[in-house]
Design goal:
Blueprint (H helix, E strand, L loop, with lengths): L3 E6 L15 H18 L3 H8 L1 E2 L2 E8 L8 E12 L2 E10 L5 E10 L1 E2 L10 H18 L9
Antiparallel strand pairs: 1-4, 2-7, 3-6, 4-5, 5-6
Length: 153
Amino acid sequence: MSWLQVRKKVHWSDSDAAGVVWFPNVLGWFEDAEEELYAAVLGRTRQSILDANRFGMPRVEASITYRSPTRPGDIVRLGLRSTLENPRRLRHDFEVRDEPTGALRAEGFVRVASIDLATFTPRDFPREVLDMVAGLPDVMAAQARGEVEVPWV
């Protein structure tokens, strides 16, 4: 199964008092990986696309299953894969794996809607988002061949 890969060094500030990554931070890491997705596929920031098309992308559903603890000092790889469920709904599947061992630390998904910012009503995604989803398999394949760098977040 192919994923767009992003590296992350886990910092002390990512953890809770028990020395384990604080659970909502994984969603923040996902957001960082999603930002890299737009840059890798379209060469643009997500915000530039939102601004140009005057639309929003609220998260309407999120789920994470934690498999093992992640601690400060660990290096992890975030994997991200996106599919268009319909013209107004996008699903991002993600995983977090220990980089040295490949052990699965967490996995989940986030569903994203598309809304018109003026009316806060549903609208179809603009062409750029469709292009991003369509272009993702090529970027993942190039990354797997070592032709595209695995970025750090």
